[in-house]
Specification:
mainly alpha; about 60% helix
């Protein structure tokens, strides 16, 4: 079951601003039977309350806590991987709008077990996210991805996805 805090921005603000909840160091352990090591950003990108996600992205910027959006779980997923896999377009847009360009690019291009966010969205059939990422990035960036990790060649799936960006 989902927690009630995910739909209650005033309650979240109260916890953070009045009760000094340690949102930077608190991991969400075993959230919905997922592997441990999720932080608040993983959970928000999965659950989809855009207002609360935007609020936390503002806090991340204020506290220079970008490590939270880049943190990976036991499956090598960062919060962008979770958003793209789950089809949470609002979370992807919030990450794009609220993060510095270099951080957004880094989390989107990071490989999770060989797959970047574009590949994950395409595999799950989230065409709106695929389109957004294809428009955001120059297709040459994605062509380069296959060469970034020399011990892995580009998969057939990635090549087909790259073709969809043209």
């Amino acid at each position: 079951t989902q927690s009630t805090w995910v739909d209650n921005l005033p309650a979240v603000k109260l916890l953070i601003e009045e009760y000094n909840y340690d949102w930077i160091n608190d991991d969400i352990a075993s959230y919905e039977n997922e592997i441990m090591l999720w932080n608040i950003m993983h959970a928000l990108c999965r659950l989809g309350n855009t207002q609360i996600l935007q609020y936390f992205l503002q806090l991340v910027k204020q506290h220079d806590a970008y490590h939270l959006v880049e943190a990976i779980d036991g499956y090598e997923r960062n919060c962008a991987h979770v958003a793209c896999w789950c089809g949470n377009m609002d979370a992807v847009k919030a990450l794009e709008d609220r993060l510095p360009k270099e951080v957004f690019q880094r989390i989107m291009l990071r490989r999770m077990q060989g797959y970047n966010c574009l590949t994950l969205a395409r595999i799950k059939g989230h065409e709106e996210i695929v389109q957004l990422l294809c428009e955001y990035f120059d297709e040459n960036v994605f062509h380069t991805l296959g060469r970034l990790n020399s011990d892995r060649s580009k998969s057939v799936r990635e090549i087909k996805i790259l073709d969809n960006c043209r």
